[in-house]
Design brief:
Cobalt-precorrin-4 Transmethylase, domain 1; binds iron/sulfur cluster; four-stranded parallel sheet; alpha/beta; 10 helices; flat
Length: 324
């Protein structure tokens, strides 16, 4: 630094481990990329493949066309279903139209679908803990006939929900399932309430919150302890990213903010901050995280540390249609 350069204020930057992409997101993005490579553009994608606007924009530039519903796709082009899963009626309509479809549903979401079917076949009514309208919840509820699943969004819902009666008037046995990207602590509270009312329900450790959500929430709890500010890189419609902000605040961070990228950082958040923690939701690409770190480096004299954390080794196979 020469004599005329402004002296930058020192700041500690702590990076959470793990952060960013999970195996399900990585697989879903690869499915769209490989489909474009194999079949040429355009490849249609029903719903945002993963909830990240940068990922969606990059795939659009490669030839992906994002639509809300299958009837917006022509019969003769491939269509990819998003990582969040789809109601059964969607692949059924694609098959009826003899469309080539590739299912990018995360295998951990598919596991919840299979479990839900198993409970239904055994005559159990399912209480699904999740957020109304989230595509994963829509997809899971759409695995079974209407009325087979009741959505429970909060402790208040858990206090109110009633056990349905079967056709012969007998009380139906219950089971539960959860959205994969919920807050572990909120879900534990809801399950405690349900279990107190319906003791037959299995123990709460059997929820379906996935490894990636669990690891990122555990890591942000450690990060938040000792950080004045936590920045979570992720899009506002990404459930697991929004949960990371909530978990950071509850774990003691003085402030926590969600940013899609460096351009969304409001530098007034840094007033009085000596340690900033950085993490990212499961659908946020690493270059965006590095962009935030670089932007901090342009304004502050940064001392970086990487928090130790769980090393993830999970990978999921691509559909056979793309590997043969
Ligand atoms: Fe799969 Fe979990 Fe990633 Fe969702 S957050 S895509 S369930 S691994």
């Amino acid at each position: 630094m020469n004599a005329l350069s402004p002296i930058r204020r020192p700041i500690n930057v702590r990076l959470a481990t793990p952060r960013g992409f999970c195996a399900g997101v990585d697989r879903a993005i690869q499915i769209v990329e490989r489909a474009i490579e194999k079949f040429g553009a355009p490849v249609y994608v029903r719903h945002e493949i993963v909830h990240n606007k940068h990922v969606v924009e990059r795939l659009k530039s490669m030839g992906a066309v994002f639509v809300q519903e299958l009837d917006e796709c022509p019969d003769d082009r491939p269509v990819v279903f998003s990582a969040h899963g789809v109601p059964k009626s969607v692949p059924a309509s694609a098959s009826a139209r003899q469309m080539l479809y590739l299912d990018a549903t995360c295998p951990l979401v598919s596991k919840v679908h299979v479990e839900a079917e198993r409970h239904h076949a055994a005559g159990r009514h399912i209480l699904l803990i999740g957020h109304a309208g989230h595509p994963e919840v829509v997809g899971t509820m759409g695995q079974l006939p209407e009325g087979a699943i009741t959505l429970v969004e909060s402790v208040e819902d858990a206090e109110r929900v009633q056990r349905p009666l079967s056709e012969d008037g007998a009380e139906q046995p219950l089971a539960y399932a959860t959205q994969t990207t919920l807050s572990m602590d909120d879900t534990a509270e809801i399950l405690k309430t349900l279990k107190a009312r319906f003791p037959e329900l299995p123990d709460p450790h059997k929820e379906d919150i996935c490894y990636a959500t669990t690891n990122r929430q555990e890591a942000v709890k450690v990060l938040a302890d000792g950080c004045d500010l936590v920045l979570v890189v992720g899009s506002p419609n990404s459930s697991n990213s929004v949960r990371l902000v909530e978990v950071a605040l509850r774990a003691g961070a003085r402030d926590a903010r969600l940013v899609d990228d460096a351009s969304q950082v409001d530098w007034s958040w840094f007033d009085g901050v000596s340690t900033v923690g950085i993490t990212a939701g499961a659908s946020a690409p690493e270059p965006l995280i590095q962009g935030v770190i670089a932007a901090i480096g342009e304004r502050f004299d940064v001392t970086m540390t990487n928090d130790p954390g769980e090393r993830e080794t999970v990978t999921f196979k691509l559909p056979r249609a793309l590997t043969t």
